[in-house]
User: Fold these one by one.
Assistant:
Number 1:
Amino acid sequence: MSRPLLSALRRPLPHLSRPNPLSLRQPQISAIRHASTTPSTPRRFVSSTLFIAGGVLLIAYYYDSRSLLHEHVVMPLVRLGLDPEQGHKLAVRLLSLDKWARPRDIGVEDAGLQTELLGQKITNPVGIAAGFDKDADAIDGLFDLGFGYVEVGSVTPEPQSGNPKPRFFRLEEDAAAINRYGFNSLGHGHTLAKLRARLVAFAQSHPSLFPSPLPLNPLPPSGIPRSLRPGQLLAVNLGKNKVSAAESNEDYIKGVKLLGPYADVIVINVSSPNTPGLRALQGKEILKNLLSDVVNERNNLKNNDGLPKIAVKVASDLSEDELADVAYAVRSSGVEGVIVSNTTVRREELSLTSTKQNEVGGLSGKPLFPYALDSIKTLRPLLPPSIPLIGCGGVSTGEDALKMARAGASLVQLYTSFGYRGVGTPRLIKDEITSSLKTSQSRWLGEVGKDYSNGQMGWDENRLKRESENVRKEAESLGDLLRHISEKESMADLIGRAEAALGRKSSSAEQTQGDGARDNLAGSATGQVQGEDAAQGLVESGAGADVQRIQQPDSQVEQARLIDSAPSTTRPASSIQDALTSTPESIDLTPRVVVVEHPPIPEPRVEQGEDEWVQSVRSGQRRLV
Ligand SMILES: Cc1cc2nc3c(=O)[nH]c(=O)nc-3n(C[C@H](O)[C@H](O)[C@H](O)COP(=O)(O)O)c2cc1C
């Protein structure tokens, strides 16, 4: 490029050239400031007032859990920006902040909302279900939102991380969620520390209720709920570690022992679908044993004043018969309450639209409601009214709560609707219940069990007795029939086996023993001693090598002896009766069975009056089949 051209390019263009901006900026700005401040002091006052008022309003909105800010601004933003598990964590963290920093229910409780549960009066019937505050971090935050009942957990004895992420899914189109957390828990130790810290803080502000000096680990004072709040209850929900033996009760027993003294209610969770084998604990006898063990452990707690009540939480996926088994286990174990229900593994019947519907795990929220309600309706008449039900599953409105109450639930719990609507949910639902109760001039307690005409929530002990007597009779006659059939079948089978053995043996030199067996079998046709003889024949009819020889006792109806020389899973027939009642499969006809030497075969006895058929059978000419 030529030198003149270069210098021309470096030279600023005349219309773009500017004076040094720094040299001009100060006077310009000061001029502007001067010009604007002096005459606008009132405007500035207005704007700062507006700013402060807006801040106060925002804070007021933030603190008041009812404000639309939470449901219509905060929650959509959370859903937009955070995945479900992150959102869940944030909510727990918010509610575990210091009192001054978290939202609360500032509404007034209507007297009509009062309910009774497990011998305690509660100011309102809306509770938070297990799974939201798994590690007891936000107990007071939840109570401050106006829940009458707070259930923490499920907590497992040892800390465990649960299933791999992602494990929590929103099904927004269905107002539902699916989770497969798999009992992620910080363990009993963490929950215990939280419960004790709460108690110590309470003791410091209420020193007169505790011994002085305050013990290191004080126990809750008698006469007040373990929630440490009048008219509200605290429940601890117990789960099992994944590595614990499926059939073991130990994890629950540990939880009762350690955490029982700090809870109004201990919930035995046997219904989470995300821990392998857990739901099998809902079977009749297994559940009865588990619950009886838990109740015994609770009764052994030292703090006799105000022992926690025990409730069991079941699934809504149980059939009517399975719910009847649960009712039986509850009645016969001394458990005081039942929560119906946990999440469901159903999918197809729910007519879901969300693309996440096929995620593995337990489904909660609106689609669960009819199933939970049905389970309540099935279970309620099978339990005496003294055993309350807690309804849970898809409750999202006051009307849902009232439907559960009429079906017999003394209290309802929710989780998923709280996840969607936010911190104002308990207040919204309580207000809806109140307005509905006012319209019908009723109270919550007046609604509980209203669907049943007998005033006992369908419970009729005599009917149950009559039904169980009928079932017993049916079982008895069925048992007789089965015994009869199995006697006949096993006899035919015994004979078949003995004959097969005899057939094999006939090729050997042990002909006599086989005949003895046949004799016995033939002898069995005479009726009276047939079973015993047949068993003896079977036991004696060994074949093959290693045959042992023992002397046949004189009587043909003598006790059979099975010499089991090798260790075996075969059950030795210790008596004829034993051999008879064994299933044929459990008697092994391999060479371990001995051959018995018989005394000479007696001449066939011909009794006076016996017909020809009997005689032919007795003499061995005819075979009994
Ligand atoms: C994310 C999540 C975690 C849960 N974890 C537990 C749990 O640890 N223990 C338990 O007993 N139930 C647990 N549940 C089940 C709830 O307590 C409740 O029974 C179920 O969600 C039905 O109520 P809902 O439809 O109001 O959510 C969980 C539910 C959800 C959504």
Number 2:
Amino acid sequence: MTGAERPHPNPPIKSGAGSPPQVGEGKRDAFGVYVHWPFCLSKCPYCDFNSHVRHAPIDEERFARAFAREIETTAARAPDREVSSIFLGGGTPSLMQPQTVGAILDAIARHWRVASNVEVTLEANPTSVEATRFRGYRVACRSACKPWTTLR
Ligand SMILES: C[S@@+](CC[C@H](N)C(=O)[O-])C[C@H]1O[C@@H](n2cnc3c(N)ncnc32)[C@H](O)[C@@H]1O
Ligand code: SF4
């Protein structure tokens, strides 16, 4: 076989002319949404993750707006899908304000159907767990996800 006849190892995905590429093209089943909060109180020496320490307050409202825009853009590329899981990872997402978590959940629920048995996970560090904030996450989740069923 000559080089010209050999199939390309990574052939390009064929999309309709002029249409934007679709995430998971050809699949219309349930999928998970991952949201990354890239901040920590300190940087562990072994950590290779996208995590950073900020000594000034983080503008969470600005981040919430940016997450909402990215969710809107992703939903335009992956329409008509059902969200079966939402994972807020980090970094240390348990440092986020409940309003920020609520705004992200609201944005997801605005753009996709959310499964009635959706699993919502937020990574937490033992040193960054604060009961009031966790009660706030529960309230934010309830308020953003009215049609969802059980929350534990
Ligand atoms: C990136 S952290 C995010 C959640 C939280 N900040 C924490 O530390 O648990 C998730 C997990 O990745 C692990 N981890 C961090 N750096 C790693 C590395 N270089 N190799 C393997 N695991 C790592 C951490 O120990 C932690 O259990
Ligand atoms: S993401 Fe987790 S492991 Fe990495 S620096 Fe932050 S607390 Fe440490």
Number 3:
Amino acid sequence: MPVLFTHHFMAMKQNLPTSLFSDIRLASAAVVDGVWVVEAQKLSTAAACPRFQVVSSARHSSYQRRLWDLPIQGRPGRPVRITLTLGRWQCRNVECGQSIFTERLPGLVAPRARQTRRAAGILRLLGHGVGGRPAERLAARLGFVGSRATILRHLLRHQRLPDHSAPRVVGLDEWASKKGLHYGTIAVDLERRTVIDVLPDRSAVSTARWLAGRPSIELIARDLDGLYADASRQGAPQAKQIADRFHLIQNLRAAIERQLSGLERPIRGYRANSGRRAATDSLPPESKVGEDEAGELTHVSGRPFLLAAFAKVRAMYDAGKTVATITRELRLTRRIVDKWVRLESLPERARMAPKSSTPSRFATYLRDRWTDGERNVCRLLQEVREQGYTGCYSRLAAFVAPWRQKAEKKPTPPSLVGILPPTLERAE
Ligand SMILES: [Zn+2]
């Protein structure tokens, strides 16, 4: 025999939706197996048939629905199950083919649902907020009865899924599920501004297959890499390919950087070739290359090598050799080969011009002044500031410090240390 508490019974009454309370009579409330079981009955004298909304007062019989409602909070919190007795009615509408209908409770519960609307609403919010599995744990802690599957079902039922039929303009890009480790492909409907799909890998084959299943695609916005271009050619030959805005701007930025660093180099080269050679010749080779120029040096000697290697990789790949074979035969890393086979040409190495806060941006001027005999950092600071230097005194002092040290050691003019990469000297 279940225990029945009057004060809990009153709590039950308050727990039921008040708007429907007027014609719902509570019969009993009892804890059975840790669950508050509330028995209630709908008192109606008539009901509307769901098909044509024609009201009938001819009661046929009754039936029971079991609904999980909001749990009672307390020690312990307990789930609440309502056993609601509802009427079956005869439809007297001649147009309606249904002779008997069951009474609906639109404000309380959806047809065939097992949770009241308000309980389902909270489960849905939990699911939406924290995801299925944590929502399941949280819901259980709060006294709800609902598995992960139930929570996700509530989410799906409520959420009208976006319409992905017949996309016209599609954006393709790589998508990292684990940055640097695992890349997939993301497809976006650019007109509806929604994600259509996420493919588990980043391959031309699977992307082409995906595209082939969507013949409505007219435009594909993609990155500048060859992979999605290949995929688009194979899977959606009818579509026009365009570079997406992000990659266009990225390209523009890279081009500007190249242009700027290209401007920087001839000036250095010019200085290197004009008139300073005699002085540097007298320096021991290791002192001629400063820290700054080490990078330049590998750049000069490295570029032709890279170009040759790139051409070889492309030729072997075009001849039908696999990436693995090329990697082995040329003794390159797999990553490089993987990247190169997808490129039309080897991109120019991006070399950013030094910032206005770096003294090296004003190196040419500073060296000239140093050669002229100016050793006062304060005066040099004032001069480069007039030219746009935004850095501080100590950086500038640190920049000229090696020249000063070498000047103390060597009788030769210290101004030229670090100007020339030896390869340029030898070229003359
Ligand atoms: Zn009817």
Number 4:
Amino acid sequence: MPPQLATLLEIQAIEQRLREVDAEIAALPRRVVEIESKLAGAQKARDQARAAQSGNASERRSVDGEIETLRAKVTKIRGHSSEVKTNQEYKALLDEIAFAEAQIGKHEERLLEIMEEAEALERRAAAADQELASQQAEVATESAAAAQRTAADRALRQQLAAERDRLRGQADERWLRRFDLVLRMRGQALAMVDREACAGCRVRLRPQFLQEMSTAPERLFVCESCGRILYLESEPVATPQP
Ligand SMILES: [Zn+2]
């Protein structure tokens, strides 16, 4: 293969690699956002666990208050027992006490349930805290890896660009102009001749054109259909015969 073509092929390969590195660099900020969004679920679970705990504590305060009120009521009724005059009044008073005590009993049962719920909620909150902490650690590791990757990509980009510029210095001006134009338009500036057709656009090449290509390998041949710079497949590498 003529050296001019070999150089352009190398430049094309580097341009391709640069596009990949640029795409990766561009995608990384989004990746970081994705990583951080994973925390939202764990944060929500933790907040919900905390809210359930505070709901439980507030119900407990309210039930405690009810019991206290009822107990005060019972004490007050008992205090009045010396003032009753008839059996009927006395019976009414006892009924009132019995009713209040039954209510106290119900509240105390609920209080036991609330305390059991509090234990379960405490375990749930601790688990949610732990999950959040472990996800935060994971996110920190992944974000650091992403930042490291970006730095490595930027370094690689610089290296590739320097190598490309070095190769461009060796390339023929006229070939480079055609190369740049087609690269911008089509992404690939060179196309191999494959089964007598341009591998870039698959249009068949005239036999006379192919004949010229093989007799004047140092000339610049361009696909008449897509404009890509054409090159003939390089000589197959001789394989040792058994
Ligand atoms: Zn073509």
